[in-house]
Amino acid sequence: MTWLLAALLIWPLAWGLNGVLVRRAPARMARVAVPLIFGLTVVFVWEALVRGFGIEPVILPAPSKVAQTFADNRSILWLDFVQTGLKGALAGWVIGAMAAVAAALLIDRSPFLTRGLLPIGNLVAVLPIVGIAPILVSWFGFDWQSKAAVVVAMVFFPILVNTVAGLAAADRMQRDLMRTYAAGWGATLWKLRLPAAMPFIFNGLKIGTTLALIGAIVAEYFGSKDVGMGFRITTAAGRLGADMVWAEIWVAALAGSVFYGLVALVERWATFWHPSQRG
Fold first, then answer.
1. Cβ of 115: how many Cβ atoms within 10 Å?
2. CA atoms lying within 13 Å on the CB side of residue 279
3. Which residues, in sequence order, are CB contacts of 145 under 8 Å at separation 6+?
4. Tens-place pLDDT, residues 88-115
5. Which of 3, 124, 147, 250 could form a disulfide with 48 if both were Cys (CB 3.0 to 4.6 A apart)?
6. CB 248 within 8 A of CB 229
7. Cβ-contact 243, 57 below 8 angstroms
8. Which of 105, 145, 103, 144 is nearest to 125 (CA)?
9. Is residue 135 within 8 Å of 124, Cβ to Cβ?
10. Helix, strand, coil % (nearest 5) of the chain?
């Protein structure tokens, strides 16, 4: 009963504190403190509800139990992250991003490819991951290469569409001005159109960060070596080890947040001139 009462009290208190911070605290402090307080409140309420209602760990483990499992299996979780997050997701994201930007430049250069590649990219985007993952695993084997291939298929289309839209974002008057300077396609692309497309490209890259980790984890359900986040989740769930499943989920959430944040930082550095990046 004490835990349930604490859960009922902590939520309005945290809500009120966040409201005060948003209204009165400096903007930089509020940007850090508000999500931190909200996250800690959610974890506390989770812990209180599990303890208050006596929920079995097999159904929903308490955060303290998950944290203990996380601490006891740091080496295993690290190896899983390296296999899935770095080798599978990051490699696939890099390859998919490079391929998408290259395809966007080709599409921009050729109207024929505009009518040909975009429908193919759309077709690849709507293919269900549960359908293409087993095929790619059979093609590329059970190691990280097959997971990277799934990630490439998932991130290619969002980055492609955003890059194509970005390349078309330059104003017509700006293009006419470049022509008056006798600038060719390459000079116009480098001096005008790519800078104008940067916000669009980074939007696609940020979308790809979330899709990459999801694709790599799901791909491991269809065959993998004895290491990896998807492999660990599958085996732990089969043994009713919900605490290990949640530990892997925490690793995935943390890795995805850091990955997204790094791309956002690079975007802020690369597009400092854009109105969206100004204070």
1. 10
2. 2
3. none
4. 899 999 999 999 898 888 887 777 666 6
5. 3
6. yes
7. yes
8. 103
9. no
10. 85, 0, 15
pLDDT per residue as tens digits for the range 188-216: 777 777 888 888 889 899 999 988 888 88
| Tokens 């921009």, located at residue | 108
* Mean per-residue pLDDT over the chain, rounded: 82
Please say whether the beta carbons of 3 and 52 come within 8 A: yes
Q: Which two tokens stand for residue 33?
A: 């403190």
* Per-residue pLDDT, 147: 87
Measured distance CA(154)–CA(148) in Å, rounded: 10
* Residue 12 contacts residue 54 (beta carbons within 8 Å): no
As a whole number of angstroms, the longest Cα–Cα distance in the chain is 78
Give the separation between CA 132 and CA 61, rounded to whole angstroms: 33
- Alpha-carbon dihedral 186, 187, 191, 197, rounded to 10 degrees: -20
CA-to-CA distance for 216 and 95, rounded, in angstroms? 14
Q: Which two tokens stand for residue 184?
A: 């060719």
Which pair of tokens denotes residue 189?
């692309």
Amino acid at 257: S
Cα 255 from Cα 218, distance rounded (Å): 16
Here the tokens at position 116 are 């040909």
Rounded to whole angstroms, how far apart are CA atoms 99 and 163? 11
